[in-house]
Amino acid sequence: FDGLVNYLIRIAPSEVVLILLSFVLLFLSILLFRKLISDLLRASTPENFSRFFFKNPLKSFGWGLITTATIRSSTITTSMVVPIVAKKLATLRDAAPFIMGANIGTTITAFIAATLNTNTLGGIGIAMAHFLFNLIGVLLFFPIPGLRQVPLKLADGLGELTQKNRLAGFGFILLTFFILPFMLIYLSQE
């Protein structure tokens, strides 16, 4: 922890500006992409859009994989699905295969980057581990209908809890993306 504090103290003001600017640009690009998709959805009938992207689970999985591999960002493709589900153009159950495809599609970027850097085999190993981890998850949850319901029911439950108490959603994000990873990093150093 002291090393992190010392590093933060030594950051030059220009580096802080660049870090903040990169975060602002990242979130603005996601918001812009989501707005463009929302505008596109208004131009199309909900039935046609849902039928095209989400009617068939395999087709939905393929669209998620291809879109994410093309854009090279599962964050963008997943945030694209949020307004679609929120506008009830598709259910969460229909969108789940798309998100699973996006999880596989996001590994393609890491694999391409690892293969372009031929100096290290470790990078290729990590990229393959990333791909296999996501593939095993998809193979576990996608073909087995009973198991596919587990994350959907958890998502529905967290959504209902967050609607009742906004701090529950914030606490989940804080725990999942900050507290648990930092605890694991700290415990692995001992």
Portion in helices: over 70%
- Stretches with pLDDT under 50, minimum 5 residues: none
**Taking all residues together, what is the mean pLDDT?**
82
Largest sheet: none
Structural class: mainly alpha
| Number of H- or I-type helical stretches | 9
List the helices and strands and how they pair.
Blueprint: H1 2-10, H2 13-43, H3 46-54, H4 57-71, H5 74-86, H6 92-116, H7 121-141, H8 145-164, H9 166-188
Tell me what you see in this structure.
- This protein is mainly α and 190 residues long.
- Helix content is 87%, strand content 0%.
- The protein contains 9 helices and no strands.
- The chain is globular.
- The model has no long low-confidence stretch (mean pLDDT 82).
Entry summary:
With 190 residues, this protein is mainly alpha-helical. It has nine helices and no strands.
Labels describing this entry:
190 residues; mainly alpha; 0% strand; globular
